Amino acid sequence: MVLGHYGLALAGKRFAPRTSLGVLVLAAQLADEVWPLLLLCGVEQVQIVASLHPLLRLRFVNYPITHSLLTEVIGGIIFGLLYFVFRRDTRGAVVTALLVPSHWVLDFLVHVHDLPLWPGGPRVGLGLWHSLPVTLILETSFFFAGLLAYARTTVANDRVGCYSLWTFVGVLVAGYASSILGPPPTGVYAIASSALILWVFVPWAWWFDAHRSFREAGNADTSMRAGPPS
User: Fold this and answer.
1) Radius of gyration of the chain, Cα coordinates, nearest whole angstrom
2) What pLDDT, on a 0 to 100 scale, did the predictor assign at position 1?
3) DSSP secondary structure string, 28-80?
4) pLDDT at position 216, please?
5) Directed axis angle between helix 201-209 and helix 21-28, to 10°?
6) Taking 90 as the threshold, does the pLDDT of residue 146 lie above it?
7) Number of domains the chain contains
């Protein structure tokens, strides 16, 4: 799952209007943001199986820290607490805390039996990656539903808030398509290096979100709308 994680981050703005989309993206993608760093350090391992179809080319041999359910739940609690300490925003703290382990939940739908429940524990996964059409439907449904929620929740204040959002969307979709249509990666270093690009989307999301405002809504009180995204 790639686009689906960003879809949940975008939808999260509906429930945490004072929280920057950059923070929401970081929470939803925290596992994939840290994974390439641990891959480069040799702490976690992956293998390339070029003969399989694009969604199954990577065999996740060992990633107990970034992709186990237990560590993601703990990571979510820590993330939410830290956010609350610095921002005193209960809604934002709860949403970001939930977004971190939501990564595991979405991955569970598509991964084969390689997601550990806890480090060294049983590995699970529904394996929808075996079907490219089903995976694409799932990915795009989560992503565009989240995008629709974000577009309805916020309004652009200027051109940055408008065009940077849609450029962000275009780059994400193009990157996902190229990962499927392109050749298999040449090695573990290439995988980790390309995955580090995901960090770019965090400040990018923060940037254009700072140029958008939360729409007036009957269920959004003044305290929710007050102040810039944090």
Assistant:
1) 18
2) 82
3) HTHHHHHHHHHHHTTSSEEEE-TTS-GGGSEEEEE-TTTS-HHHHHHHHHHHH
4) 67
5) 150
6) yes
7) 1
